[in-house]
Amino acid sequence: MIQLLLFLAYTGLNPDTLGKRIEALQTITNRYQEIPLITVTLNNEASKNSFLHHGLVLSDDPTDAVYMLKALNFYRKYFNKKIK
User: Fold this and answer.
1) 29-74 pLDDT, tens per residue?
2) Distance in angstroms (rounded) separating the CA atoms of residues 38 and 58
3) Are 62 and 38 in contact (CB under 8 A)?
4) Which domain holds residue 50?
5) pTM exceeds 0.90 for this model
6) β-strand pairing of 57-59 with 4-7
7) Distance between CA 77 and CA 52 in Å, rounded?
């Protein structure tokens, strides 16, 4: 299973580029709906709300994001075993 973890450094703190980044992320998630995408970026309350409003999964901490992907992979394996 392909999973995508995207590090955007300080994009969440830059209101000048945030809108375009969110638009690009939505394009990616719409095109590759079967691939989980978790974005990691520094953010403030306004940018966090913007990510969440657009249905994007956001993490402040890269370690937490890796744990999220690990959990998704665990559940994928679990449900694949159940189906077989």
Assistant:
1) 899 888 878 888 888 888 889 989 998 888 877 788 788 778 877 8
2) 6
3) no
4) 4-83
5) no
6) unpaired
7) 27
